[in-house]
Design goal:
Strand content: under 5%
Number of strands: 0
Order of helices and strands: HHHH
Shape: elongated
Number of helices: 4
Helix content: 55-70%
Radius of gyration: 23 Å
Structural class: mainly alpha
Number of domains: 2
Largest sheet: none
């Protein structure tokens, strides 16, 4: 899908309080002002940016998943034992449980 050319400019007057609120919303969402306003106009649901800790958890989960895949390949190749795979899956479940607890807060 081709990007639409943005050739229209909009200037808006607002109070310092309104501008402060807009800046706070943009900071919370991680979007620049223009993207935030376009999202509002197109009906896109704007969610708060995920905390850095959550992103770090996702990265770590992906690393663990890669390790699980390597263990599975090793098991299939006869290098690792099925117990190694069971232990890895158990640990992965524990990590998911911790992640769910963190994200439910």
């Amino acid at each position: 899908m081709a990007k639409a050319h943005k050739d229209a400019f909009l200037s808006v007057r607002m109070t310092a309080e309104e501008r402060g609120r807009l800046d706070a919303l943009c900071l919370e969402s991680g979007l620049p002002v223009s993207s935030f306003i376009r999202s509002c106009l197109t009906g896109v649901k704007i969610r708060p940016r995920e905390p850095t800790e959550i992103k770090e958890l996702y990265v770590e989960i992906n690393r663990i998943g890669n390790n699980i895949n390597q263990i599975a390949r090793s098991v299939n190749a006869g290098i690792a034992t099925p117990e190694d795979a069971h232990q890895a899956l158990f640990l992965l479940r524990k990590v998911y449980e911790l992640m769910e607890r963190v994200t439910d807060k």
